[in-house]
Amino acid sequence: MAGVDLTIVWAGIIGFAVFAYVVMDGFDLGIGLLYPGFPVGEARDQAMNSIAPVWDGNETWLVFGGGGLMAMFPLAYAIILPATYPLIIAMLLGLIFRGVAFEFRWRHPRHRKLWDIAFTAGSAIAALAQGMTLGAILQGIRVENNAYAGGWLDWLSPFSLLTGVCVALGYGLLGATWLIWKTEGAAQAHARRMAFRLGIATLAALAAVSLATPFLSFEYWRRWFEMPQMLLTAPVPVLVTTCAYMFFRSLSRQEERLPFLMALCLFLLGFAGLAISMYPYAVPQAVTIWQAAAPRESQVFLLAGTVVIVPLILAYTGWAYWVFRGKVGTGGYH
What we know:
Blueprint: H1 6-34, H2 42-51, H3 55-58, H4 60-72, H5 74-83, H6 85-107, H7 112-138, E1 143-144, E2 147-148, H8 158-182, H9 186-212, H10 218-225, H11 229-233, H12 235-252, H13 258-278, E3 281-283, E4 287-288, H14 289-292, H15 296-323, E5 328-329, E6 332-333
Antiparallel strand pairs: 1-2, 3-4, 5-6
């Protein structure tokens, strides 16, 4: 491994973990956001049952991504966390409320209405907090002497609010398309209607974020609008347009799996655009991934464990989705 830049390898691993979390936990957070729109009874039970076997395992990637950032890029962790503490705390509280509500709505039916409200509120808070954290990082963090030098509310801005709404809408789109795939009857019909509306809203929000981002920093502008970098970035909006066309076409053809896959592709392209804008910075315009990286010895030591653990996580995750691959009814999968 003498000739391998392990810093780039670890940046790729953590980026993969974050994307895996966004995709896998995104659709069940999205179901929480859409939940009040489903009629009380069978439709809501189908929505809940569709994620019951996988929702808690999806959050494995959040732990892996956060722990990996702390271990492999400790300087970035030490700067980003203080800059976004209110958002991280809000996200964790939202996930806790959501998890508790998920379990207690079945075990304490007398107060099911209260738990349903907690489930939706927790999902909304977590989704908005994650999107606003992304916006806070993209807009820049004040750094002095390798430490956060900003205030308690520096993360709050029109741009971070925009990214928060964009991520929440995207999660809602993932949730709606997941329910198209996994449910049937009235629940599926409602999910189709919501997927069409959320598809339009998500694309509009994604376009707004994409147009606003280059104005945050000249470096962002240069990446997207100056030659020769523009030759590398131009395929991204073209692919987004193609995926959007295929998404709405699949909805009109009453397909079940393709809308979800196209929504995933839109998230992947958004993630690629984020990587293009940020690379090679761990903290935009302040700290590069090499400046933030842990010593090489630590990278080698933890990589040895990662090449074993990550395939195991992927294996049991894939097995869980395979076992529960069918449609879901009020009583569970069939």
